[in-house]
Amino acid sequence: MSVQERKVRERADRERLILVTARELAEQQGWDAVTTRQLAERIEYSQPVLYSHFRGKREIIGAIALEGAAELAAAVRAAVGAAKGPRARVTALAYAYLDFAAQNPAVYDAMFQLDGGLAFAQDETPEPLKDGFAALLETLGEVAGDDVDPGLFTELFWAALHGLATLTRSGRLLPQDTERRTQLLVDRLVGRDGLGSRGPRRS
Amino acid sequence: MSVQERKVRERADRERLILVTARELAEQQGWDAVTTRQLAERIEYSQPVLYSHFRGKREIIGAIALEGAAELAAAVRAAVGAAKGPRARVTALAYAYLDFAAQNPAVYDAMFQLDGGLAFAQDETPEPLKDGFAALLETLGEVAGDDVDPGLFTELFWAALHGLATLTRSGRLLPQDTERRTQLLVDRLVGRDGLGSRGPRRS
DNA sequence: CTCGATTGTCTAGCGGTGCTAGGGTTGCTG
DNA sequence: CAGCAACCCTAGCACCGCTAGACAATCGAG
């Protein structure tokens, strides 16, 4: 039976090779350069081999998106874990998120700009995506404020980060002001005390 | 010379026809369906005619993006004009923005998701894009707060709206909570008093 | 050990894409 | 009215995602 095991292992290896190569190519030359022909040539197999691992290009993108979600969640948790106090944790989360998007633009595209054929915000949503949101919720939930739904607050904060990430990446926002914008975001959405309260009402 | 004038007019008419048709097709069936062949057939000319008006498909997308920017600016100004008080104006702006994105998804895509070959955040940026940002700045600048740069605050608010718009459209956020998210956004970024102040520091 | 069956891979090709070269026809101009 | 210039279309290029079918290598049964 060892022969079969070897074959299974080799197949798994080749599937990893496909994903690693696709990701590499996308980061180097953009997703437009990731064609099935180019990808096949790089892995030194013919095109049909790709289709014995994935239904099509969409599914390759989707697989990389899932990888990315797991990595983003890990990066966020690592950054948050090293920070003391609610406000510091949120700040660390924001920087970790934006850094990830800036450092892995192709993967971020796979997650949010391209069609990877993944389901969102429903039951069939793959685990890594749910967990990615959970990683945000862990930190952001504690600063949502008393009468605010943590999930809703997390969605809003996430949307703001996503907007900053994408607009910056596409050249609509200048990168040099990223830090000031991030500080302002945390200031406003969380508050300076880090407890999500807003001070007394004035009117 | 009247013949030449007629020709110029006809050319301009045809260019409008191309843009109207492309936009219509994109809204009806998505940008994937906007191929040069399909578009040529709809305007009842052959493909090369398209290239006598635009350098390529990118430029068509770009032209529609500029139209969209002008319309978005107008929609925002109209909504803001009908509102009394800074906070009400910001709320109206937010809804107008999100409504525009939801009602004209293909145009919004042309503006922000697709490559229209346009320049951003620099001198060569086309006027409609600058004016679109200006429309946001007019209302948002007055609630930025004393020690906050109005431009920076506008960028942040815009990014949040953009994030909400795109994540909602792609199914990552559920539409039914849009109103609550928008209220929370305005509450946090502007403050309940509508003057951009945040209450006394607590720590 | 032989021989059929199964598995794996490749070549070749389909229908589509954006874009363009070159030939005609049309209609204006002197 | 003749000649010319402007205009538009047919045909085709190189590429895309994807797949059918031929071929080779490997496996398992007799």
UniProtKB/TrEMBL annotation, chains A, B:
Q: Which residues bind DNA?
A: 35-54
Q: Where is the HTH tetR-type domain?
A: 12-72
Q: Which domain of life is it from?
A: Bacteria
- UniProt xrefs under InterPro entries: Homeodomain-like_sf (IPR009057), HTH-type_TetR-like_transc_reg (IPR050109), HTH_TetR (IPR001647), MT1864/Rv1816-like_C (IPR025996), Tet_transcr_reg_TetR-rel_C_sf (IPR036271)
Q: Which UniProt keywords apply?
A: DNA-binding, Transcription, Transcription regulation
Q: What is this protein called?
A: TetR/AcrR family transcriptional regulator
**Which source organism?**
Paractinoplanes aksuensis
